[in-house]
C-alpha cells in the first residue's frame, strides 16, 4: 500500500520510497523533515476539495503537509 | 579585540527563533536584505553580561545545511563563512524546539559538526511541559558537548543563563564533539538523544490536535477560513476608514498651512499639488496596511497561516501554484505592495515569481475610488432582483474579472516563462500558539516602516516628476496649462494609441498621473474638467455629471476594464524590482499587464458599442 491510500489515523512505517518520482528538491525537503525510509507515520488530515489533496502526515512530533503525489511515491506497511 | 563580535541564531523553522531574537535584542533591530538575494537579514545589538556589546543576527530557518531554498542557502553559507561580505559568526546559538527534539537535533548535529563555539537554547520548554514532556538539559549537554540552556523566549526565562553561556562559549574547550555523520546516522542519533533526554512523559490532551480536528475539518475548516477572511476584509475596509480620514485631514491641514505660510509661486505649488497631494495619497493607505498586517502576523504567529495554506492548496494547485501563494494574493486585495512583500514566505522561486507577477491583478483598494466614481456616474442604481443592486453587481464583476484574469495568467505563466517542476507543497504545520503582543508590535512597526520608506521614496520622486511634466513649459496667457505642458503633449501622443479602444484625450491624460497611483486618475480627471470642488464627495458627484456629458457608456466600461488590468502603480513596480533583484521582471509585468488592459478595454468598448449600449 502507498501512503496516500492509508486511512486517517492508521499508524504505518515507510518501507520504500520511489525517489525517482520526486523532484530532487522535494525529495531533499521530505528527507530533511524526516519523511524517509523507516519513518513511522500516520495520516492525520486530508484536504478539502476534489481529490482530497493535500494530506497532513504526522511524523514524530510534527505534522507535515504534502501533496498526494508525494505520498503515492511511498510504500508503507501498516503497524 | 576592537572588532565587535558576532553571534548568530540558527535553527529549524518554527523553533521560536524570532521570538528569542526579539527577547534578546528588543526593538533595536536592523532589517535589510542579504546582498544579491531577497532574503531578509535581521540583526540587532545585544549586550553580554560582561558589558560587551555584540551584533546578533537571526539567520533564516533551515532544515539542513544542504540548502533547498534561498533562505536555507543563506544560512548554510553564513555559518560556514562562505557568504561574501558577511563576517563569520563567532558564536552560534542553536535554537531547538523542546517538544520536537527528535527532528531539530538532526540539524543541530550538522551545525555542531562545524566545530564552532556553540550554545544551545532549548526553547519553548513551557510548551513541552504543556504537552506533558519534562526534559533533562544536563543529559543533552553531556551528549552534545556544549552548553544547553532551557529557555522560554516569550516569558524571558533562561535569557540571563543564555547570555552567560554565549559570553563564555569561545573559552570553552570543545567536548568530545559531534563528528560529521550522514543524514540517516544523524537521525538515528537524534532519535536516541531525544528519547534519552525525556525525564517523564504524560500523555495529555494535546490542544493542537483538537484544534486541527476542527480547523482542518473538510466541512468546518473552509467555513472558518472564509468567515475569518470576511472579518479581515471588513476590518481592512471599514475599521481603517476613520484613521484614513484622519490622515487625509492631516494632509489637508498641512496643505492649508503651507498655502498660508509660503509665498505663492511654483515652489509652493510643488509642495502642495506635487508632494503633499502625491505622497499623501499613498500615506492614507497606511491604516489599511497596518490592519492587514496585524491579521497576517497574528495568523502566522498562531500557526493558523499554515492551515489556511493547507486548505487552499488544492484550489491553487489547479493553476500551478501552491497553498503558500494564497496569503500574498489575499493581501493584494488591500494593496499589492504588502502582498508582494509577503511572497517571501514562498520557498519555490518559480512559484514566488508567478505570485509576484499576478499579485497586481487582485483588485487593490486604490482601484475603488476609480470604480466608485465611474460606476456611480454610468451604472443606473436599480435592483436586478433578490435585493441585489446593479451597481454592486458591476463592482463584484470587476473583482471577479481580476481574480479570473490572475488565475488564467498564472496558468499560462507556469507553462511558459516560469515553467519548472510542478510546484510541490511540503510544509510543516506548526503547533498552535497564542501570538505575543510584543512580537506583533515589533513586526507591525517593521512592516509599516518598510511600506512608508519604500512607497514613500518612489512616490515622492514620481509625483515631483509628474508635477514638473504638468507645469512645464508654462502656458502663455489664454492657453490652458494642461495643453501647454509636457504631459499634455504626451497625452496627445498617447491619445492616438488609446483611440482604438475608445479612450478620448482626457482619458489618456488621466492615465499619465495615474501611473503614480490609480486613484489619482479621479483627481486628475477632476482637474482636467476644471471642477471647482472643495471636498471629495462633492468632487465625485460633480465629476460624475461632467463624465456623463462627455463620455459614452462604452467608453466608461472600457475605462473600468482598463483599470482591472493596467499596472498603474509605480510603487508596485518599484517593489517588484526590489523583490526580483532587477528590471527584467518589472518590465515584463508592465508589458503583459498593459497588453491585457489594452485588449480588455478594446474588447469591452467594441462589444458594448456593437450591442448598442
Automatic annotation (TrEMBL), chain A:
**Coiled-coil portions:** none
Q: Which SMART domains match?
A: FeoA
> What molecular functions are annotated in GO for this chain?
transition metal ion binding
Q: Which UniProt keywords apply?
A: Iron
Q: Which Pfam families match?
A: FeoA
Q: Does the keyword Plastid apply?
A: no
Q: Which domain of life is it from?
A: Bacteria
- InterPro entries from the xrefs? Fe-transptr_FeoA-like (IPR007167), FeoA (IPR052713), FeoA_core_dom (IPR038157), Transcriptional_repressor_C (IPR008988)
Q: Does the keyword Iron apply?
A: yes
Q: Which residues form the Ferrous iron transporter FeoA-like domain?
A: 1-78
In its UniProt entry, what is this protein called? Ferrous iron transport protein A
Query: Source species, please?
Result: Novosphingobium mathurense
UniProtKB/TrEMBL annotation, chain B:
Q: Which PROSITE patterns match?
A: G_FEOB
**Is the Transport keyword given for this protein?**
no
Q: Which residues form a coiled coil?
A: none
Alphabetized UniProt keyword annotations: Membrane, Transmembrane, Transmembrane helix
**Where's the FeoB-type G domain?**
4-172
Q: Which Pfam families match?
A: FeoB_C, FeoB_N, Gate
Looking up Gene3D superfamilies in the UniProt record yields:
P-loop containing nucleotide triphosphate hydrolases
The record's listing under SUPFAM superfamilies reads: P-loop containing nucleoside triphosphate hydrolases (SSF52540)
Q: Which residues form the signal peptide?
A: none
Q: Which GO molecular-function terms appear in the entry?
A: ferrous iron transmembrane transporter activity; GTP binding
Q: Which GO terms describe its cellular component?
A: plasma membrane
Query: Transmembrane segments in this chain: where?
Result: 214-237, 274-299, 353-379, 385-413, 450-470, 551-575, 587-608
Cross-referenced InterPro entries:
Fe2_transport_prot_B_C, FeoB_GTPase, G_FEOB_dom, Gate_dom, GTP-bd, P-loop_NTPase
What name is this protein filed under?
A: Ferrous iron transport protein B
Organism from which the protein derives: Novosphingobium mathurense
Its lineage reads:
Bacteria, Pseudomonadati, Pseudomonadota, Alphaproteobacteria, Sphingomonadales
Amino acid at each position: 500500500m502507498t501512503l496516500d491510500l492509508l486511512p486517517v489515523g492508521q499508524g504505518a512505517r515507510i518501507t520504500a520510497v520511489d525517489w525517482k518520482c520526486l523532484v530532487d528538491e522535494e525529495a531533499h525537503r521530505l528527507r530533511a523533515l524526516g519523511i524517509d525510509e523507516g519513518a513511522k507515520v500516520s495520516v492525520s488530515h486530508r484536504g478539502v476539495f476534489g481529490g482530497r489533496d493535500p494530506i497532513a502526515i504526522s511524523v514524530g512530533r510534527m505534522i507535515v503537509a504534502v501533496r498526494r503525489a508525494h505520498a503515492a511515491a511511498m510504500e508503507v506497511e501498516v503497524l | 579585540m576592537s572588532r565587535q563580535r558576532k553571534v548568530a541564531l540558527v535553527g529549524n523553522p518554527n523553533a521560536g527563533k524570532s521570538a528569542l531574537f526579539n527577547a534578546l535584542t528588543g526593538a533595536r533591530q536592523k532589517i535589510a536584505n542579504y546582498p544579491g538575494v531577497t532574503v531578509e537579514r535581521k540583526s540587532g545589538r545585544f549586550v553580554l553580561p560582561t558589558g560587551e556589546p555584540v551584533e546578533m543576527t537571526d539567520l533564516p530557518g533551515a532544515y539542513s545545511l544542504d540548502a533547498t531554498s534561498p533562505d536555507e542557502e543563506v544560512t548554510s553559507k553564513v555559518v560556514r563563512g562562505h557568504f561574501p561580505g558577511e563576517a563569520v559568526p563567532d558564536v552560534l546559538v542553536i535554537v531547538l524546539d523542546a517538544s520536537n527534539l527528535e527532528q531539530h537535533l538532526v540539524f543541530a548535529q550538522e551545525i555542531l559538526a562545524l566545530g564552532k563555539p556553540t550554545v544551545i537554547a532549548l526553547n519553548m520548554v513551557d510548551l513541552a511541559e504543556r504537552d506533558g514532556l519534562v526534559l533533562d538539559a544536563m543529559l543533552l549537554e553531556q551528549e552534545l558537548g556544549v552548553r544547553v540552556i532551557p529557555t522560554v523566549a516569550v516569558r524571558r526565562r533562561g535569557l540571563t543563563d543564555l547570555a552567560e553561556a554565549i559570553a563564555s562559549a569561545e573559552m570553552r574547550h570543545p567536548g568530545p564533539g559531534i563528528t560529521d555523520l550522514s543524514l540517516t546516522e544523524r537521525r538515528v542519533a537524534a532519535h536516541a538523544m531525544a528519547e534519552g533526554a525525556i525525564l517523564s512523559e504524560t500523555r495529555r490532551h494535546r490542544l493542537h490536535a483538537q484544534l486541527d480536528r476542527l480547523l482542518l475539518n473538510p466541512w468546518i475548516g473552509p467555513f472558518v477560513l472564509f468567515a475569518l477572511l470576511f472579518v479581515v476584509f471588513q476590518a481592512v475596509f471599514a475599521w481603517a476608514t476613520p484613521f484614513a480620514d484622519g490622515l487625509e485631514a492631516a494632509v489637508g491641514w498641512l496643505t492649508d498651512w503651507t498655502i498660508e505660510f509660503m509665498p505663492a509661486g511654483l515652489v509652493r505649488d510643488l509642495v502642495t499639488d506635487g508632494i503633499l497631494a502625491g505622497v499623501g495619497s499613498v500615506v492614507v493607505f497606511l491604516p489599511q496596511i497596518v490592519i492587514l498586517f496585524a491579521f497576517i502576523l497574528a495568523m502566522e504567529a498562531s500557526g493558523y497561516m499554515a492551515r489556511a495554506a493547507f486548505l487552499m492548496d488544492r484550489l491553487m494547485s489547479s493553476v500551478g501554484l501552491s497553498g503558500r501563494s494564497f496569503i500574498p494574493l489575499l493581501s493584494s486585495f488591500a494593496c499589492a505592495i504588502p502582498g508582494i512583500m509577503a511572497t517571501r514566505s514562498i520557498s519555490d522561486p518559480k512559484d514566488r515569481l508567478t505570485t509576484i507577477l499576478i499579485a497586481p491583478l487582485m483588485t487593490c483598494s486604490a482601484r475603488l475610488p476609480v470604480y466608485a466614481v465611474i460606476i456611480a456616474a454610468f451604472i443606473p442604481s436599480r435592483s436586478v432582483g433578490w435585493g441585489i443592486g446593479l451597481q454592486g453587481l458591476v463592482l463584484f464583476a470587476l473583482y471577479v474579472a481580476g481574480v479570473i484574469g490572475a488565475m488564467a495568467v498564472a496558468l499560462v505563466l507556469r507553462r511558459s516563462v516560469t515553467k519548472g517542476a510542478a510546484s510541490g507543497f511540503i510544509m510543516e504545520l506548526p503547533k498552535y500558539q497564542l501570538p505575543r503582543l510584543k512580537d506583533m508590535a515589533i513586526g507591525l512597526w517593521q512592516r509599516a516602516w518598510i511600506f512608508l520608506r519604500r512607497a514613500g521614496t518612489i512616490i515622492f520622486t514620481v509625483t515631483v516628476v509628474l508635477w514638473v511634466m504638468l507645469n512645464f513649459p508654462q502656458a502663455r496667457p489664454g492657453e490652458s496649462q494642461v495643453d501647454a505642458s509636457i504631459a499634455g503633449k504626451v497625452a496627445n501622443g498617447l491619445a492616438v494609441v488609446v483611440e482604438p479602444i475608445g479612450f478620448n484625450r482626457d482619458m489618456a491624460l488621466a492615465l499619465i498621473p495615474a501611473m503614480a497611483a490609480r486613484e489619482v486618475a479621479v483627481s486628475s480627471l477632476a482637474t482636467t474638467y476644471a471642477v471647482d470642488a472643495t471636498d471629495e464627495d462633492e468632487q465625485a458627484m460633480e465629476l460624475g455629471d461632467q463624465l456623463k456629458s462627455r463620455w459614452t457608456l462604452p467608453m466608461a466600461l472600457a475605462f473600468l476594464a482598463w483599470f482591472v488590468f493596467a499596472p498603474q502603480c509605480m510603487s508596485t513596480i518599484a517593489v517588484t524590482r526590489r523583490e526580483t533583484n532587477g528590471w527584467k521582471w518589472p518590465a515584463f509585468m508592465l508589458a503583459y499587464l498593459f497588453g491585457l488592459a489594452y485588449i480588455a478595454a478594446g474588447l469591452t468598448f467594441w462589444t458594448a458599442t456593437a450591442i448598442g449600449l
